Every structure is written in structure tokens, then in C-alpha cells.
Amino acid sequence: MAKALQIPKNQSWRMKHKGENYFDMVYEVVKLIPRGRVTSYGAIANYLGLKSGARMVGYAMNASHANPEVPAHRVVNRNGVLTGKHHFENPDLMQKLLEEEGLTIEKDQILDFEKYFWDPSTHLL
DNA sequence: AGGTTGACGATGG
DNA sequence: CCCATCGCCAACC
């Protein structure tokens, strides 16, 4: 079973882990998002302590096509909007994947977003 | 080696 | 409320 990133509490979060870049750190967190739940770029950035991080997370997800193991469809923006849909093979694939996990999407927006929102800072340690 | 280009989000005018 | 700015990584010319 996957476990949360081991984050040294007394060290700067801005430091790269040995040989591990920010992108990889983001992927580790995304892999921990449960099926049927979603989180936001900002929430991941906040968990990782990246100061200007939401953007970093966006960059990371942009490159995540190389990692099939990363459930990229479970990451949306802070308003529950599927901003990354155009980066999937089919623009409708992201919505389809989320609907298969029980979510309802209307106009690229997740209904009851708060209900499905999964905050790594709350659920991981 | 340097410029361009992105799945974001807080802030301030 | 809408719009501009800023933060500052990595892949690809």
C-alpha cells in the first residue's frame, strides 16, 4: 500500500529530495487520491509546502502523460473545474473517467465539489 | 545557453 | 468585479 511522502519536518520543503524533483513529489501525492475523490492543484501545493506551488502542480500534471500510474483526472482547479481536460487524448475523457467514479459534471464543473474534495493535508500525515 | 511555454491561485488596483 | 502581476520548474526548441 502506498504511503504518504516522508517529509522531513525540520527541513525546507522547497529543497528537492535526493534526486527527486518537484514533479515526482506531485505524482506521489496524486497517486494517493482515493477513487471517487478529487483534489485541487493548490491543495497539493499546500501539502507539499511549495510556495508558488499551484502553478508547479499544473506544470507537473502537464508532464504526467509519461506516468500512466498517475490518476490525473482527479486533479481539478480550486473551483472544481476540469481545466486539464484538453490534455487528455480525448477532451471528454477526463469527465468520463470522473463520471465512472460516481461524480456528476456539468459544464466542466464538478457538482457538490466540496463533498468529493479530498485534501492531502487533512488525510495524509 | 537562452527564450518560450504551460493542468494555478493569491493579491492588489 | 474584472484584469494585471507575480511566483519561479522543467521540457522543448
From TrEMBL:
Name of the featured protein: Methylated-DNA-protein-cysteine methyltransferase related protein
Coiled-coil features, chain-numbered ranges: none
Organism: Belliella pelovolcani
GO molecular function, one term: methyltransferase activity
Domain Methylated-DNA-[protein]-cysteine S-methyltransferase DNA binding residues, every copy: 23-102
GO BP: DNA repair; methylation
Keywords: DNA damage, Methyltransferase, Transferase
Keyword Cytoplasm assigned: no
